[in-house]
Amino acid sequence: MKSIKCEHYDYIEIMCLYQYHVRLTLHSGNEIVGRFNNIVIVQGDDQNYEAICGYTTTLIPQTVILTDIKLIEVLSTNSLFTHLTLSE
């Protein structure tokens, strides 16, 4: 299972705990705007992936594999962090 850097988990846990309104930029170039509240393990391609689950701003359920995320931008006010770059 490919994973993200250990230091990034705390930020993702905070993002889910407080259900921050965020914009995720994926390596594919797609952007997802919404709130995420859970970290889960999903199966695909004969392996497990860590992912976050939540809803887009239009209330569509969304699951995003953590290693697919390039950048997290926090849109909520008074957040504990404003952005997180998961890979360069």
Report on this structure.
With 88 residues, the chain is mainly beta. It has a single domain (6-85), classed as Roll (SH3 type barrels). It is built from one helix and six strands; from the N terminus they run αββββββ. It has one helix at residues 6-17; strands at 21-26, 31-44, 47-56, 61-65, 69-74, 83-85. A six-stranded antiparallel sheet has the order 4-3-2-1-5-6, with helices on one face. A hairpin with an 8-residue loop joins strand 5 (69-74) and strand 6. The relative contact order is 0.28. The model has no long low-confidence stretch (mean pLDDT 94).
| Percentage of residues in helical conformation | 10-25%
Output the CATH homologous superfamily.
Protein of unknown function (DUF3247)
Sequence of secondary-structure elements? HEEEEEE
Through-space gap between termini: 20 Å
Total count of domains: 1
CATH topology: SH3 type barrels
Name the structural class. mainly beta
Strand order of the largest sheet: 4-3-2-1-5-6
| Overall outline | globular
| Highest CATH level, the class | Mainly Beta
Q: Could you report the average pLDDT, rounded to the nearest whole number?
A: 94
The rounded Rg comes to: 12 Å
Count of strand segments: 6
In percent terms, what proportion of residues is strand? over 45%
Tally of DSSP helical segments = 1
Largest sheet: 6 strands, antiparallel
- Note poorly predicted spans: none
| Quaternary structure | single chain
Which CATH-level-2 architecture? Answer: Roll
